[in-house]
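Residues determine shape. Take a concrete instance:
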Amino acid sequence: MLIDLLLNTLAPVSHTSSARLQPAERRTQILDAARRVLEADPHRELSVELVAAEAGVSPALLFHYFGSKKKFQYAVIEAAAAEVMLRTAPDLSLPPAEQLRSGIRAFVRAVLEAPQLYRATLLMSAAGDPAVRALHSELRQVFSQWVINAVAERGIEITPSVELACHGWQGYVESTLLRWIDNPTVSPGELESLCERSLDAILGTTSE
């Protein structure tokens, strides 16, 4: 599901006039409008009315394409997750250590650009929403595997302890980001550095 959306994210968007948009294009148009609303004010509540106005459609038409507010919110979260995966994918032209560093920092920046979406994803997953929980699990699995692969490229043997530490580190990062969103006591740059350095600190506990 997320992989399919990644491919769709890479596909060019048609600029056909509004009256002639196909259903998939109309959905993309509305999701693009949601993104613009979030970029204008990352801490603003993402309401159906705001997005519909930005997209130049009625709230009724938005519901027609997404079915309900909950399904619309899920579609926005899914699109954001696909973008995070694209932005944090390892750049194989970089040295292994830099691949990992740039990926971690890109992940933190992507979260801070749409903090309320990240918070909603974690809270809806924790609350047991099946669709969001599955999406969150997929997102974590892909990112954790990239981290593990990058750690291996640095010459570190991937033992069960190291693999467990990498997965545990991601939980630490999630908790840290969620806390920062609610109480930003350090700068975004310091937050990026903290998340990056914490991985080495956690991996250090696996050494005998």
DSSP finds ten helices and no strands in the chain. The two ends are 40 Å apart (CA to CA). Residues 103 and 126 are 25 Å apart (CA to CA).
